[in-house]
Amino acid sequence: MDENNSETVVQSPKCEVCHEIPYKYKCSKCLLKYCSLTCLNEHKTKDNCSNKLYDPLEYISNKEMKNFDVKTEDKESNTKEVQTNHVVKRDYEYLLTMDRQLQLAKSDFKQKSRQLLPSGNPNVYNNRTVNKFLTDNGMELKFIMQRGCRCFLMPLGSSKNKRNKSRYDNKQKKFYWTIEWVVASNNGFEETNKTMIIDRCFEDMNIIDLIRYKWPKQEFKECFNLQHMEDTENVNWLNADLKAKILKQYLDQDKIHVYMKKYPNKMNNILDTKDAVKIQNLDTALLSGILSSNTCLEFPSLYVKIDKHKYVDSDELPIIEKKIIDDTGECINFGTTELKVYKSGEDIEKRDQQIIMEQERLEEEIRARKEKEEQEIKAQKIVQQNQLKQKRVAALKENPVVKKQKITHIQNSNIPDFHEKESSDSDDVTSDEEETKQTSTSNSLAAKLFG
């Protein structure tokens, strides 16, 4: 027989839980042999084993603890040595770990509190002076000016406040922004929406260069529908040159549009707006020029609309004229957000002025209508008073005795006569003969009443 055949193959013992696969591990406490995590979990449940050499939660009495001490005696030197048992070591390590966890918890709390409530001058943010003003509603709004852009500050500790990394780079002598990209793309079957927050977007770059260099490759491939061009063998198939060709074709075919929200100059609250303006000249307009004299919340948000198109590696495609947005605006959906897009900010100002003029006209009409109704009501009241007065005068002419009795009764009871003016008018109407008749009849009635 050959030497290879004579050698016996030594097989490792099998798992003591499943008894099928050779073991790979041993339990730390009972040294049971197992092969996988499932067998370990089964061993824990069946044998009630913690898989820990020193279980810090296991109770051990003092008598049992003394028995664990290891004693050695040296007869020649008559010395005794007592070694510390593993239970004392277990408790000591347990206390050390607890102390370490407390220290970590304190340091984490300090770090988190420093992020939520940063110390320092509250009137300075990112080396900029914080401006404050009160709205018509009595709300205090804070903002800073960065590169000509009015940036409203969100509350400290909010997700948008913590995510803002817009800073000035002293080494490159440039200002870089944190930009939120909201993308809505159509690949022919369905419309996908993505939101990306990208840091270090330099102000001297245009929108096309930002998309080319700052967007991640996976998001770029999905948004521009490049699954048919994917090369599994070449990892770097989507390089900067190919991105430049794709973006140029999308620009020539008018398939990519970028919008930015337009906030009003006078804000009464920090609520988000639904008005947006289309950014022109994406391949030449710099980010600094786009953001200057604009407003944002913490950091800018750009909305990118990519229409249905499939990239073709050809230079013979005709250039399509760009679509012009009407003065009335156009509604575009970005997932759950709906924007009313205009050509420029002047169109929004004209719309706001028309709305204000329409409101003033309606208020003027309502005011004139109210004044007219009040005048009509006053005229009706005057007519009613005149009619009532004429009726009273006619009644007094027919029966003047009743009027004189009423006057004497009011004078005796010291009740003010509210019809004094009317009585004076009626007295002018009566003649001298009627007055003598009235006195004689009143005397006869008094004689009958009082005897």
Automatic annotation (TrEMBL):
Ranges annotated as biased composition (Acidic residues): 425-435
Gene Ontology terms, MF aspect: zinc ion binding
CDD domains, sorted: zf-HIT_BCD1
UniProt GO cellular component terms: nucleus; pre-snoRNP complex
PROSITE patterns documented for this protein: ZF_HIT
Residues annotated as domain HIT-type: 15-49
Residue stretches in coiled coil: 355-399
Assigned keywords, A-Z: Coiled coil, Metal-binding, Zinc, Zinc-finger
Alphabetical GO biological process terms: box C/D snoRNP assembly; maturation of LSU-rRNA from tricistronic rRNA transcript (SSU-rRNA, 5.8S rRNA, LSU-rRNA); snoRNA localization
InterPro entries noted in UniProt: BCD1 (IPR051639), BCD1_alpha/beta (IPR057721), Znf_HIT (IPR007529)
Stretches for region Disordered: 405-451
UniProt record similarity statement: Belongs to the BCD1 family.
Function of the protein: Required for box C/D snoRNAs accumulation involved in snoRNA processing, snoRNA transport to the nucleolus and ribosome biogenesis.
Name the UniProt record assigns to this protein: Box C/D snoRNA protein 1
Organism: Hanseniaspora opuntiae
Lineage of origin: Eukaryota, Fungi, Dikarya, Ascomycota, Saccharomycotina
